[in-house]
């Protein structure tokens, strides 16, 4: 990694340094390689260590670097491509679904969810929690909200709480004729529960995919899926996929 003296630029010094470091990571380092220590890096780039730390923290947030206790700062592997939408529309829990049921409770939903579902704020709905793993690591956590009227025959099913109850709700949802889906993506921050499931710190950047499933002229279910922004790039559709990158694209070494 060569020495680069920063000149006067209209952007913050740490951001310009982040750009320079990104170019160096792509051209001079391989995945898993340990970076020089902060003192050496600061000297090579002619910046204060505080500026360097800001740049390194930004690259860590973008998923380009990983800080491992006892090891140091290493170059992270490329983001995992995660398909969140295919050309055909299906209910959650379909045969080719990649999510694993974790739990299911009957409880009043958040106010915004109740509004989207068109149910009273104090009316309990089925809240199905699911998780998704890719390449051996957790990449997403989901809460699927299903109004009781969408699965009226559920009480007749002998399903205790937990994954079994979640699978029962998903099976009943399949009985409805799916009319269409609406999907939106936004950047968010990991809640305490999601952070624990995703092995991230609370407040870490995440990509939130909200999907409304319509049947019988109403919103029959609502999914709020939280994806790790540091390791995932979301793809939509089987061909001509649109990919969402949090930061510049990086190819595998």
Question: Top keywords for this entry?
Answer:
253 residues; alpha+beta; Arc Repressor Mutant, subunit A; Chorismate lyase; six-stranded antiparallel β-sheet; three-stranded mixed β-sheet; 32% strand
CATH class of the largest domain: Alpha Beta
CATH H-level homologous superfamily name of the largest domain? Chorismate lyase-like
Oligomer: single chain
C-alpha end-to-end distance: 17 Å
Overall SS class: alpha+beta
Q: How many domains make up the 3D coordinates?
A: 2
* Estimated helix fraction: 10-25%
Explain how this protein is built.
By secondary structure, this protein is α+β, with helices and mostly antiparallel strands. The protein has two domains: 13-75, Arc Repressor Mutant, subunit A (Orthogonal Bundle), CATH 1.10.10; 80-244, Chorismate lyase (3-Layer(aba) Sandwich), CATH 3.40.1410.10. It is 25% helix and 32% strand. The protein contains six helices and eleven strands. It has helices at residues 13-28, 38-45, 49-61, 111-117, 163-173, 192-198; strands at 65-68, 72-75, 80-85, 100-107, 125-134, 137-146, 180-189, 205-215, 218-228, 232-236, 242-244. The protein has a six-stranded antiparallel β-sheet with strand order 4-5-6-9-8-7, sandwiched between helices. It has a three-stranded mixed β-sheet with strand order 3-10-11, with no helix packed on it. Strands 1-2 form a two-stranded antiparallel ribbon. β10 (232-236) and β11 form a beta hairpin. α2 crosses α3 (49-61). The protein is elongated. The relative contact order is 0.15. Mean pLDDT is 83; it is low at 239-253.
């Amino acid at each position: 990694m060569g020495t680069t003296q920063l000149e006067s630029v209209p952007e913050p010094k740490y951001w310009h340094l982040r750009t320079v470091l990104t170019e160096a990571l792509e051209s001079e380092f391989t995945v898993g390689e340990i970076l020089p220590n902060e003192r050496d890096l600061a000297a090579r780039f002619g910046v204060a260590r505080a500026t360097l730390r800001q740049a390194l923290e930004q690259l860590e947030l973008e998923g380009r670097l990983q800080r491992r206790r006892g090891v140091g700062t290493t170059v992270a592997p490329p983001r995992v491509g995660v398909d969140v939408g295919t050309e055909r529309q299906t209910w959650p829990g379909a045969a080719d679904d990649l999510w694993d049921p974790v739990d299911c409770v009957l409880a009043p939903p958040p106010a915004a969810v109740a509004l989207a579902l068109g149910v009273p704020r104090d009316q309990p709905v089925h809240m199905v929690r699911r998780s998704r793993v890719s390449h051996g690591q957790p990449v997403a956590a989901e809460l699927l909200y299903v109004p009781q009227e969408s699965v009226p025959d559920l009480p007749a099913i002998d399903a205790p709480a937990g994954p079994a109850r979640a699978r029962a709700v998903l099976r009943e949802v399949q009985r409805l004729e799916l009319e269409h889906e609406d999907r939106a993506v936004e950047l968010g921050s990991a809640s305490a529960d999601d952070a624990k499931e995703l092995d991230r710190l609370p407040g870490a950047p995440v990509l939130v995919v909200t999907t409304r499933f319509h049947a019988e002229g109403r919103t029959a279910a609502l999914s709020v899926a939280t994806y790790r922004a540091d390791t995932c790039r979301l793809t939509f559709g089987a061909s001509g996929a649109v990919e969402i990158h949090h930061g510049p694209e990086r190819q595998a070494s």
